[in-house]
């Protein structure tokens, strides 16, 4: 005891653990500029001479359509916030004014690249393949004679010149319409006058000059109209004309009141959408400065809102060229394969019998939507043992087999409950139409929730088997739309797991009734559970890494913007967790920053199919977790939407999801890598989508 007493050191107060250094203020990238970087990746595909020619024209059209929606929604939203007069900074520290200035500069740069690609590269190559876009002065007399008849019979009757003078106020300019600003002179007074002429959108933008077969020549509709302006202004001298296009705010602001019919509120707002404030003015390089001043003034815009476009305006109309029957100028056709567990040779199997044997992970468009998810709903509608079908619909197609199956089920006496999200942007009117069709057939229709969009992709089928009720479920990452299922990359689980069935039953009670449940067995559900659930799992990986146990994080999402999730990923990286992120679109995280995100890699794959699935993987000390569902990591998804993530427990499905990550993150894959300064760099040559098409086809064969 004496020896022990002599060797005992004086008691020293324990030192508190060191606090990790604060996260740097410049740790976020700007979301608007990051979105423009995504659209630049689309443009790079249009510039890629290794792609088939009409596929390049398709990407030119996609770039233009994307940019339209960006201005209609994101830039419109920034301008609306700016109009409030509040000083608001983005997470990267920029004021709204600074963001708008940078967006304008970057947009002008990309629009110029877009036009140069079309004019100087794609157009000459199209001409070499006998596909030509010509101007009026290029035509022979026999061609102009026929086109004058076409103008007289098909175009002239729908044109309405609108004068602008003291008796005629400046006319309303509809969003995304092409317009001619025309300057005429009265020979008697000698004074110039201004008129506006809308290029009709119900007449083909590219007018065929002669037969369209192995050769095709087109005249832009605005050229045809411009050549006939004297007929529209008889007795006046046409001095000049210039093309312009206006983009308006199309982001709905539905003032939702619990005491008001949500459908009526939305229909009222849809009527207002047409008259949203102008947010972008596109003009040609030859636009007269005086006319431009008139347009900017009358549209109540600023010079910063003007985008100058070399050549043709509105290249989203290039879809018309892509529709030409020229298969040699397009990707080889791909026919999705039926999932091997859902057929025996050429004979389709009962989806219910298959799911009783185990879960099925379907990967669209590689696996056929028609012979998996669609067949699941169609078999349920026709099965006399099925008692009820409950489903969420966010977006669907014009002639939807899913909706038709639900109507058939209701007419057959089954209980059919459908939540139709009538606030799905740009699909509002279509969804209202579908909802009313379902109601007329006897379905119970719910029009979304007050204050939230229901974005989850879920279907529940209740079937009586040997006197016992059994539940079958589909939960996916994509909409119940057979058309986009051939173009979008998505994942979905078909399962008869009773825990998942019980969860989805509880969720539908939340969506259709007054339940306030927020905790589930196999699901994470926003707006209450996904952000907190993911952050907790990210922190768990950080603890594993700090204690020397296996740790790792992999996310595949469309967008990563949420600051709390990003900060959690930074903390995990500081703890040594390997983090691999596959982000198609917006990414506000900076990877590879010393002391902050050294273990984080970010990739983007943009290709033939739109990468759309959302999957999260956690190593979890050797007991991996996989989650799959509808949620992107953005504020709107985590705070203002009903989203669902499903824990995937089936061993085979887990291996398949692991393979999706392994393939996408493998060396040599054609992708874009994000650097710490926010710059995306294209790398690799192996097309991961082409490999999946080949593997699925070989498996099917």
Automatic annotation (TrEMBL):
Its EC number is 2.7.4.1. Residues 1-23 are annotated as: Disordered. Residues 13-23 have a biased composition (Pro residues). GO terms for molecular function: ATP binding; metal ion binding; polyphosphate kinase activity. An intermediate of this reaction is the autophosphorylated ppk in which a phosphate is covalently linked to a histidine residue through a N-P bond. It comes from the Bacteria. It catalyses: [phosphate](n) + ATP = [phosphate](n+1) + ADP. The active site is at residue 455. Residues 143-321 form the Polyphosphate kinase middle domain. Belongs to the polyphosphate kinase 1 (PPK1) family. Catalyzes the reversible transfer of the terminal phosphate of ATP to form a long-chain polyphosphate (polyP). This is Polyphosphate kinase. It comes from Geodermatophilus normandii.
């Amino acid at each position: 005891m004496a020896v022990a007493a002599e060797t005992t050191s004086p008691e020293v107060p324990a030192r508190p653990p060191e606090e990790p250094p604060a996260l740097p203020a410049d740790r976020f990238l700007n979301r608007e500029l990051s979105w423009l970087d995504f659209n630049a990746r689309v443009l790079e595909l249009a510039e890629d001479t290794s792609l088939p020619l009409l596929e390049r024209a398709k990407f030119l059209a996609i770039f233009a359509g994307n940019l339209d929606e960006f201005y209609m929604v994101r830039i419109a939203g920034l301008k609306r916030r700016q109009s409030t007069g509040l000083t608001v900074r983005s997470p990267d520290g920029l004021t709204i004014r600074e963001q708008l200035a940078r967006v304008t500069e970057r947009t002008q740069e990309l629009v110029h690249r877009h036009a140069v690609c079309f004019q100087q590269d794609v157009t000459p190559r199209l001409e070499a393949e006998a596909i030509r876009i010509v101007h009026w002065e290029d035509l022979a007399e026999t061609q102009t004679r026929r086109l004058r008849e076409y103008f007289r019979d098909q175009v002239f009757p729908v044109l309405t010149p609108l004068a602008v003078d003291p008796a005629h106020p400046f006319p309303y300019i509809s969003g995304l319409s092409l317009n001619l600003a025309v300057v005429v002179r009265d020979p008697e007074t000698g004074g110039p006058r201004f008129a506006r002429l809308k290029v009709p959108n119900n007449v083909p933008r590219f007018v065929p000059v002669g037969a369209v077969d192995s050769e095709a020549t087109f005249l832009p509709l605005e050229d045809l109209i411009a050549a006939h302006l004297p007929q529209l202004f008889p007795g006046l001298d046409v001095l000049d004309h210039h093309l312009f296009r206006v983009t308006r705010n199309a982001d709905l602001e539905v003032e939702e009141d619990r005491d008001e019919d949500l459908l009526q509120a939305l229909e009222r707002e849809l009527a207002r959408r047409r008259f949203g404030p102008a947010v972008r003015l596109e003009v040609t390089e030859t636009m007269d400065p005086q006319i431009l001043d008139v347009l900017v003034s009358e549209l109540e815009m600023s010079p910063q809102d003007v985008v100058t476009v070399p050549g043709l305006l509105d290249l989203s109309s290039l879809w018309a060229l892509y529709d030409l029957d020229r298969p040699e100028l397009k990707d080889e056709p791909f026919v999705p394969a039926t999932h091997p567990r859902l057929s025996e040779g050429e004979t389709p199997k009962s989806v219910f019998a298959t799911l009783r044997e185990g879960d099925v992970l379907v990967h669209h468009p590689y696996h056929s939507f028609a012979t998996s998810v669609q067949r699941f709903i169609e078999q349920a509608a026709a099965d006399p043992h099925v008692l009820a079908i409950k489903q969420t619909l966010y977006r669907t197609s014009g002639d939807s087999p899913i909706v038709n199956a639900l109507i058939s089920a209701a007419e057959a006496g089954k209980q059919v409950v459908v939540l139709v999200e009538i606030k799905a942007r740009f699909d509002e009117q279509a969804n209202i139409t579908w909802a009313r069709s379902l109601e007329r057939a006897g379905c119970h229709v719910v029009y979304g929730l007050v204050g939230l969009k229901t974005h989850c992709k879920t279907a529940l089928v209740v079937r009586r088997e040997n006197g016992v009720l059994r539940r079958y479920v589909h939960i996916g990452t994509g909409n119940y739309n057979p058309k986009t299922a051939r173009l979008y990359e998505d994942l979905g689980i078909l399962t008869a797991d009773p825990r998942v069935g019980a969860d989805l039953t509880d969720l539908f009670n939340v969506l259709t009734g007054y339940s306030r449940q927020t905790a589930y067995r196999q699901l994470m559900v926003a707006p209450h559970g996904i952000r907190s659930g993911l952050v907790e799992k990210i922190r768990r990986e950080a603890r594993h890494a700090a204690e020397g146990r296996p740790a790792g994080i992999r996310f595949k999402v469309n967008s990563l913007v949420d600051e709390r999730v990003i900060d959690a990923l930074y903390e995990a990286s500081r703890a040594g967790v390997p983090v691999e992120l596959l982000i198609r679109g917006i990414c506000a995280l900076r990877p590879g920053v010393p002391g902050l995100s050294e273990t984080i890699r970010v990739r983007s794959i943009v290709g033939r199919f739109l990468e759309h699935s959302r999957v999260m993987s956690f190593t979890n000390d050797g007991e991996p977790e996989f989650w799959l569902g509808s949620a992107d990591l953005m504020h709107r998804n985590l705070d203002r939407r009903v989203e669902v993530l499903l824990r995937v427990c089936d061993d085979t499905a887990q291996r398949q999801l692991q393979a999706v990550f392994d393939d996408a993150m493998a060396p040599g894959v054609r992708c874009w890598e994000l650097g710490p300064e926010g710059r995306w760099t294209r790398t690799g040559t192996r097309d991961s989508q082409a490999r999946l098409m080949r593997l699925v086809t070989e498996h099917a064969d």
